[in-house]
Design a protein that fits this description.
Keywords: Methyltransferase, Transferase. This is Ribosomal RNA large subunit methyltransferase K/L-like methyltransferase domain-containing protein. GO terms for molecular function: methyltransferase activity; nucleic acid binding. Helix content is 22%, strand content 25%. β13, α11 and β14 form a beta-alpha-beta unit. α7 crosses α8. The chain has two domains: 176 residues, VC0802-like (2-Layer Sandwich), CATH 3.30.2130; 219 residues, Vaccinia Virus protein VP39 (Rossmann fold, 3-Layer(aba) Sandwich), CATH 3.40.50. Bound molecules: S-adenosylmethionine. The site of S-adenosylmethionine has 24 residues, from α8 and β10.
Length: 414
């Protein structure tokens, strides 16, 4: 039964092979950021005394994934979550659910009738099913049965391009029917996500390992970056992670060993395909990292050229940053540079991660997040070692080309 004070909404998570299970962890962090702990969000799935850790909640443990039903008291959370989400394709408000179409029509929430019976509103109906294909004829038949004269007798006018309400009928894996309407502003399928303007193919200044825009935003969401947070990327490169954080209003700091990359002298280059080249605001001819902030009208970051192994910060100013977000060099495309020893790749990799934690232990505030990527090579176990002074919040795998993969890891400073 749907309780009066709680609304059932369904998160429709984007499924893509490259993005793996990043959608669940993003939903967890965004609802938490806006005040709803994950134990509340997923309370109907797990018994209180055996509640899993965040990283144990996967597509395998959520029965109807990529549809995830959650109970909300406050629907105002939805626009807030959607304003930052990359992986939640849509959020649907459930008005009825049943095993048969007849019961579905009988169970409809009374408050939904104010929309269904209003001829001044326009609508479009959609059928969502990820688990099996249905023919066009069957779709029309189902829509007629639910929204047509013999069903809910919907009085709205039809508008297929810009409807006021997008109704949906969802058929779940276990052949249950759910009816509702979308709560996102996306009235059309394939509507662009806010982050699309940041895609690398349109980014003005690129380097050999610029971080993809979606991963950068997912990492900023894992760190729950907010306005006026102080965020640091010790391996800033061309600044992708900082661009995402700056979009959320953070004050950004970055260091990078390769000063030439920041100043565009060698491996960094102007992307001739970027539409920013045609923008009247584009004045800079010299390639350099700050162009990536100018392009989106973001304030310039605070940058320093240094080796992460060197002492950079004032020893009296500890626990300064609210978040550290980085993609350390793995030694494949981005070289791991360290004085003296360039030979032993694995040792260098271990040293760079160890150093990242050392820096974070000092300069990250308590409760601040360290979000980083960690490569998994053949034969390596998919796990994250315990790290003194940090609690593991979440980790998920991203599959990459040629069977490589990497983990997106989120730690919290204790
Ligand atoms: C994987 S890339 C990061 C790319 C960056 N996120 C971007 O969007 O361009 C790693 C960066 O770490 C830098 N790096 C390598 N060794 C370093 C060190 N010891 N200290 C600081 N930066 C280092 C590399 O020059 C490279 O730019």
């Amino acid at each position: 039964m749907i309780q009066e004070q709680e609304h059932i909404v369904t998160l429709v998570i984007n499924q893509s092979i490259e993005m793996g299970e990043f959608g669940i962890q993003e939903a967890i962090q965004l609802f938490e950021l806006f005040g709803l702990p994950y134990q509340e969000l997923f309370k109907q799935y797990f018994p209180e005394n055996q509640f899993p850790k965040k990283y144990e909640i996967t597509s395998q443990t959520l029965p109807n994934y990529p549809f995830v039903d959650v109970y909300l008291k406050d629907l105002d959370l939805i626009p807030k979550v959607l304003s930052r989400s990359l992986m939640i394709h849509d959020i649907l408000y459930t008005i009825s659910r049943a095993n048969t179409i007849e019961d579905l029509n009988k169970n409809v929430l009374l408050q939904a009738m104010q929309y269904i019976e209003n001829p001044n509103l326009s609508c479009k109906c959609d059928i969502i099913t990820s688990f099996f294909k249905i023919t066009q004829e069957k779709r029309v038949e189902l829509m007629e049965q639910v929204f047509g004269e013999k069903g809910l007798n919907c009085q709205n006018t039809i508008n297929l391009t810009e409807p006021d309400i997008l109704y949906y009928l969802m058929i779940t894996k276990d052949q249950k029917y759910i009816a509702g309407y979308t709560l996102s502003k996306k009235k059309k399928r394939r509507e662009k996500n806010f982050a699309r303007i940041y895609e690398l193919p349109n980014r003005i200044y690129l380097g050999p390992v610029s971080l993809a825009h979606d991963l950068a935003f997912l990492m900023a969401n894992q760190a729950q970056v907010k306005e006026n947070d102080f965020v640091f990327d010790p391996f800033a490169g061309t600044g992708s992670s900082l661009v995402a954080c700056s979009h959320f209003g953070a004050i950004c700091f970055g260091s990078e060993i390769d000063g030439y990359l920041m100043k565009g002298h060698c491996i960094g280059y102007i992307n001739q395909k970027s539409t920013y080249l045609k923008d009247p605001n584009y004045k800079q001819v010299k390639p350099y990292i700050n162009l990536n902030f100018q392009q989106y009208n973001l304030p310039p970051p605070n940058l320093i050229q240094t080796d992460v192994h060197l002492p950079t910060f004032n020893p009296r100013v500890d626990e300064f940053f609210d978040a550290i977000i980085c993609d350390p060099p793995y030694g494949i495309r981005a070289s791991i540079q360290q004085d003296g020893n360039e030979q032993d790749l694995q040792a260098n990799r271990t040293a760079i991660y160890r150093r990242m934690f050392e820096v974070a232990r000092r300069v990250l505030r308590k409760g601040g997040r360290l979000v980083y990527l960690y490569p998994l090579f053949k034969g390596m176990e998919k796990k994250v070692e315990k790290e003194e002074g940090f609690e593991l919040v979440d980790f998920r795998e991203q599959k990459m080309v040629d069977k490589r993969s990497r983990l997106l890891v989120t730690m919290e400073k204790l």
